[in-house]
Amino acid sequence: MSAEELFRRIRRSEPTIGRATVFRVLERLVDAGVARRLERDGHVSAYVACRPSHHHHLSCTRCGSVEDIDEAYVRPIGERLAGDLGFEVDDARLDFYGRCARCADIRPRSPDLGVEADDALGRPSLNTSLALD
Known about the structure:
This protein has 4 helices and 5 strands, in the order H-H-E-E-E-E-H-E-H. The chain is an alpha+beta fold. Strands 4-3-5 form a 3-stranded mixed β-sheet, with no helix packed on it. The relative contact order is 0.11.
């Protein structure tokens, strides 16, 4: 959600809140590590709540969904940089932009189970079909 979208939403119930207050609070949340700023089309910043552990994001450019991905996906890049170039990574913030599995209309296969997965993280889907009469 962009700061402007959040401002408009809050303004409905709190008409005296200022736009600058919303922007300041969002930046403080980013500084505290509980929110992250992502870039949308047109260089518009969007903000997502984050869990405290170090992680990265998959950001869908079609539907706007954001998924956390574990550091384990990115750690090999840092290890390769150290081995190949002697570069010691202190911190990395990596966001991937593209289409989520739903928007891309694909179902990734789970590498461990060899079954269709329900999401872009490879988690297997459960058969939860309901018969509606």
